[in-house]
Amino acid sequence: MDTTQRRKSGINLPASMSGTSLRLETFSSSPSINKLSSPLKSMSPRTISNLSASSSPSKSMSSCSDRFIPCRSSSRLHTFGLIEKASPVKEGGGGGSEAYSRLLKTELFGTDFGCFDSVAGNFKGGSPMSSPSKNMLRFKTEQHSSVSNSPFSPSILGQDGGLSGEAATPPKPPRKVPKTPHKVLDAPALQDDFYLNLVDWSSQNVLAVGLGTCVYLWSASNSRVTKLCDLGPNDSVCSVQWTREGSYISVGTNLGQIQVWDGTQCKRVRTMGGHQTRTGVLAWSSRILSSGSRDRNILQHDLRVPSDYISKLVGHKSEVCGLKWSHDDRELASGGNDNQLLVWNQHSQQPVLKLTEHTAAVKAITWSPHQNGLLASGGGTADRCIRFWNTASGNQINSVDTGSQVCNLAWSKNVNEIVSTHGYSQNQIMVWKYPSMAKVATLTGHSLRVLYLATSPDGQTIVTGAGDETLRFWNVFPSVKTPAPVKDTGLWSLSRTLIR
């Protein structure tokens, strides 16, 4: 194409380009437009911007394009106040404000941007190729799938900024507790009486249950049921309690007697009197058996002496319904229908502590196996609170309103958690973390108030009993070696077994 032809066409072309090196294609509106190929189709913006006007004329086809100009509004520097201007002076002088500005830029735009000195207008320890403009003019696909790819990730602030490790560590998910019992036993004639204690689990994995006038033993290892004793038509069972070794069991009766039986041979060893009426609660230490009665007295029994009891503790003004020895056998806690919680010394005939903050009967009592002198107690319907005490100082540490009558408390020996069973009005079972008292789980299933509670020897399972004449086994605590969540047992968990 000569000069005349270029002038006629109205297009100014470089002298080195011939008329055949430029092709103009007319695109029609037909569907075949998708089949047309363009030399720019597979070229990135970076490739386009690198094209120079002095392309080699020897190529069969040359492509020209204007330079690539990105949209600077996407940087939104004005939003974060990162436009290069003098920053306000913060505490600690100008040096601190500049360090803060560099740290903030590094967190938002990367380490290359953080190397820029906003005061001097140059780059520290880098070449012009590491300028922030190189990053800002490059289109970037934001990664939302990973926290570490986010420009706002606290990588620098978490490591070098002095923040605590807890802020950078994701919170641990709560432990899952199965919502259904893995076994249900029918327990006919299990009494619905708040002041009785009719269920206990021995260290040899045998469950004792008082049903009417009889005591039955259920072996958790083979599900074998054995009838221990029958008190006859004129008496009934009011309490059962295993020794710590799990070989002998004590039985409190409605007539005020305490019987001691050999659990392996089903043979009665001893019968002791002293109470005027029913004995609703029993507690063993390593050598002493304590019994509480409706006659308001606590008797201390020693099987090594021939007398019925060796001492009498007088302090309650109404029926004694809660008794627990501390793990070191130094203190005995007692609760009564007079709303009092008393703490007795092993050598004293008078209570060393009188705790009167409860406003209802105190049946639920448990000592912490993790901290000496830490006692928890629960109040009845008019109180509904779980209270924690330091028996060394006599001070109340904490109080939590549960919303229901507190019937039983048990402290886990595997983890620092507490399980409580409740009556009016929700009849629920609750697992709590200590000392935060955050709820781990709330279990329901009993149709009447959950009056009885015992813990398995391994500390993972609890059994609960209620006036609905059922015993339900729940996996609520982890094991000592593997604190992983226990596995739900599925549909077969609702199968029932008759205990007698």
From TrEMBL:
**Which InterPro entries does this one have?**
Cdc20/Fizzy, WD40/YVTN_repeat-like_dom_sf, WD40_CDC20-Fz, WD40_repeat_CS, WD40_repeat_dom_sf, WD40_rpt
Which SMART domains does the entry link to?
A: WD40 (SM00320)
**Origin superkingdom:** Eukaryota
Q: Biased-composition ranges for Low complexity?
A: 28-42, 49-60
List the Gene Ontology MF annotations in alphabetical order: anaphase-promoting complex binding; ubiquitin ligase activator activity
Keyword Transmembrane belongs to the record: no
What are the protein's UniProt keywords?
A: Cell cycle, Cell division, Mitosis, Repeat, WD repeat
Q: Does the keyword Cytoplasm apply?
A: no
What ranges cover the WD repeats?
313-354, 355-399, 443-476
Q: Region Disordered: what ranges?
A: 28-60, 158-181
Similarity comment text for this entry = Belongs to the WD repeat CDC20/Fizzy family.
This one is known as: CDC20/Fizzy WD40 domain-containing protein
